[in-house]
Structure formats: C-alpha cells, structure tokens
C-alpha cells in the first residue's frame, strides 16, 4: 500500500513528462522555507560521468568520516534509490512521511496552477531529508541539463562540477556544444568554486563566460597527469599526479572520472572545507560501488550491464571492451528514439558479435523492429525480442554451453535497471 502511494506521487520521477522550468520548484521551496540554505552542496552536472563522480565523492567523504547525502537519478527499481545517506537509501516509511507532509502544500500549488512534477517533488524531499538528518555534505546530481533542472533551485553551492560535455538530449538542451554547455554551466553560482576538465573550445568558452559573469573561480583537472591505466573485469588501476589509485569498477573512462573526484577533494581541502588525508581518498575510491556502470552481474556465463546511452558513452564502452580479453560478445540493446542511433551503432558494433534488440520501459523508446533494421546495416546476427525478459532468455540460450563468451546489456538507463534486476534473479 505504501509503495503504491509512493509511485502514485512520483510516477514522473523516472523521466516522464520532463519540464525544464523552475517556477513550480521555486513555489514549492518557498513553501518549505528553502531547506537547501542549511546544506553544504557539491553540485554535479555534465553529459557523461556525473553519476560516477558523485559516487566517488560520496565514498571518499564517507570514508573520511563525513555524513554524506547523495541525490541521483534515474532510479533502477524504486525512487528510494535516488535519496541516500552514507549509501543507505531512504525507507518507504520515511519517504511516505515526507509525501504526507507535502500533500497540503501540493494541493495548494495545484490550485495555483503550480503543481510540481514527480522529479521536483522527489528533489524537494531529498533536500528536506538531508537537512533534517543534518548531513555534513550533499552530493547533488543534476537530472537533465543544469540551468533549468529542478536541482538548480538551490541558492548556493560550495562547489560546482562540470564533467565532460557532449551532444545529448538535443531536443531539450540545444543542437550545438555551445548551447548544451550553456545549460550545464547554468549551475554555476555567484562567487563560487567551479571544477571541470579542459574541454573543446566551444564548451570552454561558455564555461569561462559563465564563470566571469558569476565571479566564480574556475579550476581545471589536468587529464595529461593520468598514466598507466589498466582495466580488468572488476577493477581499474591508474596513476594520477604520480600517485597510484585503484577503483573497484571497470573502465578506462573511470580513471578520468576519478581524477575529477580526486581534484575536487584537493580543492575543497585547499579551501579548508574538508580535512582528508591522501590515504583516505585512496581507500574511498577502492570502496566505490556503482550499479550499472560496466557492472559484472553474473559469472557463468559472464554478464555485464553498462549505462552507455549516447555517443560518448558508446565510445567509453567500446574502449573498455577492447581492453578486456577478447570473447564472443552478445549484446542486449535498447535505445531511446531521441538519441544519435546511427553514430552509436557505428562505434559499438565492431565490438559486438550478436545483437538482441529490445525496447526500454520508457515512452521515448525506439521500437525494437525499427532499431533492428538499423543494426542490420552493421551486424550479421540480429534478433528482435521487444520484451526485455524474452531478450535475456534469448541471450542466455545463445550462450548456453559456450566457452569464452560474454553478455552485455546497454543503450538506456531505463532498460539496464530492469535488466539488472532480471540478471540477479537468474540461477
């Protein structure tokens, strides 16, 4: 009963009915007396890597003895996953308590034509919960874009992080890197700290322009200081600034995400905002757990899921697959229709032997038959199973009694969350 009520209030929180505006959110926060004003917030945006950076920052800070609230999206199975303190998600009972607390406010806002979306309600609950639980830091991940995202209702942050900016969500954010960078850089607050890596000219010009306008201090991560990246099925080892680090996740790109997290901690330490030793940073990175980011979910046959869902993500996934021992690879793939599908397929198809095409549980999903038609231009062996359960059954059947084979699901976060739950149930 509780779960049904939560889903009824938060049915939009998993990406439906996206609204890029802040009027409703401002009205909701005003009614709640702006809980963000009592929080130390690290705000993270970017096209790829922001979720991993959030997890790394949380793990490092928590390992250093800090109480850390994390708000991230989308969720895989239930909205509670989006709101966590020290890696423990908010309970159904507490989440429902906050929903009941908000009911009279929401009813009033609805009468005023200012009814918030599910994502906005969830964002407000996260900020209330973190305030009430007196966390030391909040790591706040942007949902979509930045400037008009619900999380950008916060009035201040102790650090704004912008991970790599690439082409994605063009129907919402713009059709050029400059336009998309403008939306991402919209999280930069007045007189604040900003951290990003050196990016392309269009992106850097926009970030610098926004920093100058807000009188914010721009700090750069130097990726040229990353060396000797080694990737296994469940680890990444690399050198950054002449120090060796080990991550409990796979992917060359994770070394770059980790260097952002390390640099963020160094910056916060330099400004006197945290007190952490280098050994605590290293230990925190060794403990990270990030579901859905080249995550091994089954041993026999070897099965992974990965959150690659745009061109940049496909490049990272292809690079990771290239670094692992060569195996016959079966892909379970489902993509949203507003993605650059042809480019994504061109990048990933050389690493895949068999495609099983399915349909993510999202109204924006590409139809399996249409996606399969495009894939046939890049691959010889293509199967269509629109139902995700059937797609997994097909993959397992094709892998049966075969050595040196692996299955990987990717293409949409909405698909891999559900696929992950199915994999974990397989004997």
Q: With helices defined by DSSP (H or I, 4 residues minimum), what is the helix count?
A: 15
Q: Specify Rg, calculated over alpha carbons.
A: 21 Å
The profile of the biggest β sheet is: 8 strands, mixed
Give the count of structural domains.
2
Count of DSSP E strands?
Answer: 17
CATH topology-level name of the largest domain: UDP-N-acetylmuramoyl-L-alanine:D-glutamate ligase
Explained architecture:
By secondary structure, the chain is an alpha/beta fold. The protein folds into 2 domains: 2-286, UDP-N-acetylmuramoyl-L-alanine:D-glutamate ligase; 295-425, Mur ligase, C-terminal domain (Protein-Tyrosine Phosphatase, Chain A, Alpha-Beta Complex). The chain is built from 15 helices and 17 strands. The strands form 3 sheets. Strands 4-3-2-5-1-6-7-8 form an 8-stranded mixed beta sheet, sandwiched between helices. The longest helix has 20 residues, at 92-111. The protein is globular. The chain starts with a helix and ends with a helix. Residues 12-17 have low confidence and may be disordered.
